[in-house]
Amino acid sequence: MELNVHHFSVSLGKADIVRDISLHVGEKRFVGLLGPNGCGKSTLLKSIYKVIKPNSGQAYLDGTDLVKSSPKTVAQLMSVVGQFNELSFDFTVREMVLLGRTPHKKLLDPDNAEDYRIVDDALRQVDLTAYADRSYLSLSGGEKQRVILARALAQQPQFLILDEPTNHLDVKYQLQILNIVKSLNTGVLAALHDLALAAKYCDYLYMVKKGKIVAEGVPHDVLTKETIAEVFEVECEIYDNPVTGGLGIAYLTAK
Ligand SMILES: Nc1ncnc2c1ncn2[C@@H]1O[C@H](COP(=O)(O)OP(=O)(O)OP(=O)(O)O)[C@@H](O)[C@H]1O
């Protein structure tokens, strides 16, 4: 499925947070949204997945109008791994992941054997089979993040939105989660902070500053020392990593 966002603008209170952003995620593409703290990445993502209403603009997932469709219709197509995953009451890990099945059910439909099979499969993918009966609230931040990804997988999405999905994760699980996401073969739009990981996993990048897109393109074209200096106010050198063959970033000083 393709995501097309046309001229989205979002204000919160009196502040214009997202200012006329258009973007495109092609079929099965992994697209990264980069930018400094507070530049509007989460607000843009939330307005695409319907937590915030944009002031203006359209968003389509193939032919589905995301602004006008019901949350349930959107949730049948799209999973979200958000930034904050706290609950005020407790569920087991299995119950949390079962929630991913909700958009595919009618009210009061019981969970069936197929749902449990899908949930077990999702838990296995994120390495949490042994945690199925644990209380969600007792988990570490990184374990919670993996449960939320399992819930997103159980939703069997055709498109994924990720807001800093590697927050809280140690290096093994950062790589594991991005590898899982990449292997799903769905379109992905992900806000990421780690520029080297973005270079490794993303097919295309949008760089956001103060609510506007200031650069876009393939990682090698966007992640230049000039763009990083302008957007993040950090001096760096870009190099070809001799070990991985990928793009390396040596950060020098904050400007
Ligand atoms: N209700 C609100 N009223 C006014 N400003 C708000 C409101 N909610 C959020 N903001 C501001 O909107 C801006 C964008 O926030 P957003 O969470 O979208 O940034 P972000 O790029 O995702 O940042 P981070 O990388 O820190 O997660 C921030 O400056 C934030 O303080």
From TrEMBL:
GO terms for molecular function: ATP binding. Keywords: ATP-binding, Nucleotide-binding. Pfam families: ABC_tran (PF00005). SMART domains: AAA. Residues 3-235 form the ABC transporter domain. InterPro entries: AAA+_ATPase (IPR003593), ABC_transporter-like_ATP-bd (IPR003439), ABC_transporter-like_CS (IPR017871), P-loop_NTPase (IPR027417). PANTHER family: ABC TRANSPORTER ATP-BINDING PROTEIN, HEMIN IMPORT ATP-BINDING PROTEIN HMUV. This is ABC transporter ATP-binding protein.
